[in-house]
Each structure stands twice: as C-alpha cells, then as structure tokens.
Design a protein that fits this description.
Helix content: over 70%
Number of domains: 1
Order of helices and strands: HHHH
Number of strands: 0
Shape: elongated
Oligomer: single chain
Structural class: mainly alpha
Largest sheet: none
Distance between the termini: 7 Å
Length: 82
Amino acid sequence: MGTVIVITKVLYILVCIALIGIVLLQQGKAAGLSGVIAGAGESYWGKNKARSMEGGLHKATIGLAIAFIILSLAVNVFSALA
C-alpha cells in the first residue's frame, strides 16, 4: 500500500505542475472580448477557435483539472487507509 501512496502523490504533483503551466499559457478572456467587439469574432480563427492552440489548451485544462480532482480524492482515501 505504501508504494501506491507514493506513486499517487508523485502523479498528483506532476499534474499540479502541468495544470499550473497550462493555465499560465492561456490568454486572458479580456483579449477575446475586445476582438469580438472589433469584429474579429467573424474571422476564420474566431469561428474555429476549438481547432486552434487556444482550444487545445482549453481541452488540456479540463483534462488536467479532472485528473487533479480524482488524484486529490485518491491521495485522501489512500492516506486514510494507511
């Protein structure tokens, strides 16, 4: 059981670091709103935002956030059982 706790905590730390990095790479929402007001929302990149790097970062953030929550629960449960 001790190795499971160590592996879970190492994965937890790696997910935390990756989540911080992904969030820092994203653009602020204010930049998107000013582009919509100026008419940039009608451009090709405005319509296909999900296929761009920004969309990929958004999907990675969601995936890492889910992994963060699951690993948080796992660390808590495994620590309580030990």
